[in-house]
Write a structure and sequence with these properties.
Elements lengths: L2 E3 L2 H4 L3 H7 L4 E6 L9 E13 L28 E6 L3 E7 L6 E11 L1 H11 L17 H7 L4 H4 L10 E6 L12 E4 L16 E4 L18
Antiparallel strand pairs: 1-7, 2-3, 2-7, 3-6, 3-9, 4-5, 5-6, 8-9
């Protein structure tokens, strides 16, 4: 698979536009197994679900009202910067900063494409369970923390790293195919997941996913499928 990287200009745009346009794009992780003498492995997934967080005005955003801390500093850095944070004390999620103060896109789910067996290995390595799990391919990256586990995306490795310049984690398009181009009629809008605390912002349609895609994290459909 021949790839061309997305540049910083892609992310230096309105947060909602970036969240929609990331659907169908590739996320590439160049990962070196911990075993001795193993060459780096290229892990590739296709993004199928994102959420937009609009920064200072968005009650669901970590940067709401200009809240700026050591934890969320990446949200205020140059577009294309990874914001990796811990949830529940044991899982991690990744966002990408965009144009707009404190704005970022959460990567929610992806379709595994390349070196899937290594993704399954990483899911088991990063899990707290003691028994080795056998994952269906659609389960490997079907959630923000699962995605981070499958690609070994960790806060200590990638938080505040600009992915436009990283050699270990970056976004790309396929060079010779139109597979990364998504028909706008195949994008569905719905409310974001798990933000009931955000009052009126909890119902805003800022979650975007590919219609009828088996790799989406949760099929919580809006009453009407809206072209975006």
């Amino acid at each position: 698979m021949d790839l061309v990287r997305l540049d910083c200009e892609f992310f230096d745009r309105d947060c909602v536009e970036v969240a929609k346009d990331l659907l169908g794009k590739l996320l590439v992780r160049i990962w070196t197994p911990e075993s001795d003498d193993h060459a780096p492995v290229r892990l590739v997934v296709r993004l199928v679900e994102t959420e937009a967080y609009l920064g200072l005005v968005d009650k669901a955003s970590h940067s709401y009202k200009g809240r700026r801390t050591v934890r969320n500093e990446a949200m205020f850095m140059d577009p294309g910067t990874a914001y990796v944070y811990n949830i529940y004390g044991m899982y991690q999620c990744i966002n990408i900063s965009t144009k707009g103060e404190g704005a970022a896109v959460l990567l929610r789910a992806a379709e595994p494409l390349e070196n899937v067996e290594w993704m399954s290995h990483l899911r088991n390595c990063r899990s707290k369970r003691t028994k080795v799990a056998v994952f269906k391919i659609r389960e490997l990256c079907s959630g923000p923390s699962k995605l981070c586990q499958a690609l070994d995306i960790r806060k200590d490795l990638f938080d505040q790293v600009n992915l436009c310049r990283s050699d270990e984690l970056f976004f790309a398009d396929e060079l010779t195919m139109d597979a990364s181009v998504v028909d706008v009629n195949d994008i569905v809008e719905s409310p974001r997941i798990g933000i009931a605390y955000a009052q009126e912002w909890s119902s805003k349609p800022l979650r975007f996913y590919l219609r009828d895609n088996a790799f989406v994290s949760t099929f919580r459909r809006s009453k009407t499928i809206l072209p975006v």
